[in-house]
Design a protein that fits this description.
The complex is a heterodimer of chains A (115) and B (115).
Chain A (H helix, E strand, L loop, with lengths): L2 E5 L2 E5 L4 E8 L6 E6 L5 E7 L5 E3 L5 E5 L4 E6 L8 E11 L2 E6 L3 E6 L1
Parallel strand pairs in A: 2-11
Antiparallel strand pairs in A: 1-3, 3-8, 4-5, 4-9, 6-7, 7-8, 9-10, 9-11
Chain B lengths: L3 E3 L3 E4 L5 E7 L5 E8 L3 E8 L6 E2 L7 E6 L2 E6 L8 E8 L10 E2 L3 E5 L1
Parallel strand pairs in B: 2-11
Antiparallel strand pairs in B: 1-3, 3-8, 4-5, 4-9, 5-6, 7-8, 9-10, 9-11
The chains are: A mainly beta (115), B mainly beta (115).
């Protein structure tokens, strides 16, 4: 069965510093992977998705993620953090079950950005 | 832009009450989902629907039911609310589940408190 693990429930960085949010997946089939962001008091918004094309995926707001099959990882990065990046980030994998595709979410990582 | 709206942002109910959470999407999506979000657990799927009057149990359906009488509307029902159902509830919609990379679009969430 597919699953995702996000390492670190809270990450804190300085403004301008590198952002690295970790996600490892488990999948018996080639995975389809997603990163979502949730700003305070809002729903989830898609940042980027991996669909078996290029292994380096670029998303919105300067974020990108690299799919590494050998490490079963899909870490999210941004070269320079901005105060507006403070949010909760969720990694997710598609699971095929009973004829339907479902999204399986990680527990989330809350990113804090300080001046 | 896809828009998913939820009837209430905040709701306070008493134990034993029947609670209705409403979700409406305006993009003619076939699929709709209900999740609950709890700290440290990420999002967990309660129910989903792939067509009008069709429903499938997710990972945590106990204590909940759903209704989909029209394509654009998906209701979550708590027959007899309990304190352990205090949570954030998120609705989402997407194109057919046959598309493995189909993005789910989320509503802003309803924070339900059961006293």
């Amino acid at each position: 069965a597919q699953s995702v693990t996000q390492l670190g429930s809270h990450v804190s960085v300085s403004e301008g510093a590198l952002v690295l949010l970790r996600c490892n997946y488990s999948s018996s089939v080639p995975p389809y992977l997603f990163w979502y962001v949730q700003y305070p008091n809002q729903g989830l918004q898609l940042l980027l998705k991996y669909t078996s094309a290029a292994t380096l995926v670029k998303g919105i707001n300067g974020f990108e993620a690299e799919f590494k099959k050998s490490e079963t990882s899909f870490h999210l990065t941004k070269p320079s953090a901005h105060m507006s990046d403070a949010a909760e980030y969720f990694c997710a994998v598609i699971m095929f079950s009973g004829g339907y595709n479902k999204l399986i979410f990680g527990a989330g990582t809350r990113l804090a950005v300080h001046p | 832009d896809v828009k998913v709206t939820q009837s209430s942002r905040y709701l306070v109910k008493r134990t034993g009450e029947k609670v209705f959470l409403e979700c409406v999407q305006d993009m003619d999506h076939e699929n709709m989902f209900w999740y609950r979000q709890d700290p440290g657990l990420g999002l967990r799927l309660i129910y989903f629907s792939y067509d009008v009057k069709m429903k499938e149990k997710g990972d945590i359906p106990e204590g909940y039911s759903v209704s989909r009488e029209k394509k654009e509307r998906f209701s979550l029902i708590l027959e007899s609310a309990s304190t352990n159902q205090t949570s954030m509830y998120l609705c989402a919609s997407s194109l057919p589940l046959g598309g493995r990379t189909n993005e789910q679009f989320f509503g802003p969430g309803t924070r339900l408190t059961v006293l």
